[in-house]
């Protein structure tokens, strides 16, 4: 049995792992590699296709959750010749379709812009991009081949191979995937952590226990740090709203990812208005993708935590409350600038890079009565990163704006478990029984620090694979 690390190796994005049991080949996740998109990650091999393997040689794909750094290249896999199935949970299937369709729409716009250019260098770039960009047809093909799998039920995928999806928190439908294999007459087990959620997160269940395995492939995003803010999401949001919209008649702009983060925000706001008697400040959610994702959340209340289910039974709504409005059209989005009362605007993307949020930031960045609350990770160079680093002016769509709004940050809505959560996940495994532990999905410095922490806790058999590295198990 062989395991190859083809993505998220010594980097955060591009999760993709290949498990080979004799002639049966399983691909676990098939995510977008943002480093490759930025030209930072060279190909693993001089393979002529998009992937470092023949797509047609893969027998099965397992998907841990919907985020594009885990799912984003599934359409390319089918375009390259894959003809098999994708196994994932029902919510992961629905949310992945929303994310991939949106990506295909953006890809088409990029292709149209490049085709309209008469510059040779742009046309050369277009020819290269065409190799990487999938469209609606490939998304349909991928989604047609998804087989939804229930949590906590062992599912046989081939002779001597079965898989189980275990709740991971982090995002609706996210799973740890346990694979049991009979290899040369010996029973072996592996667990792919996916992204590990944090405990007591709005809407989501806590990560569930994982049985003892022989090999653990564990994410390490927060392997070298703890969450900074110790308040609950409700207390943290209440504090910000009190200071920015109630004590003064201001505006609160919250850049937020449409899938997962926005739903946690809306649910927390609903609880604040219902349980703490907050004034009914107008709340606008400005993201068509958030609207579609919220409908999927409503269809899967049975998979949410006890608190959310009890709240729904009592109030008959998780995300709909007084003075709340989804903005469906771009015209309605721009009209919010004329709203004269204190309000909260939630819009994507969370990094303030692309999406309608750029308009809201531009319209409010020079208003000292406005506050921009960053609630997630912002990659270096994004507008969100520039705001967090105290840049005095910001250029948005070619126009420079002085930064006079208040800039705040909180990580209470991060869906990733921190170092303590990761340790709790790993320590479900006996160090005497666990044969090897592989760290993935993190910056290299985070992995090294987490490896040291694990060694101190009695786990000496920790590997940090390089991209393209293969292990015999």
TrEMBL record:
Pfam families: Beta-Casp, Lactamase_B, RMMBL. PANTHER family: CLEAVAGE AND POLYADENYLATION SPECIFICITY FACTOR FAMILY MEMBER, INTEGRATOR COMPLEX SUBUNIT 11. Residues 13-257 form the Metallo-beta-lactamase domain. This is Beta-lactamase domain protein. It comes from the Bacteria. The keyword Hydrolase applies. The keyword Hydrolase applies. SMART domains: Beta-Casp (SM01027), Lactamase_B (SM00849). Keywords: Hydrolase. Residues 262-387 form the Beta-Casp domain. One of its GO terms (molecular function) is RNA endonuclease activity. It comes from Fibrisoma limi BUZ 3. Coiled coil: none annotated.
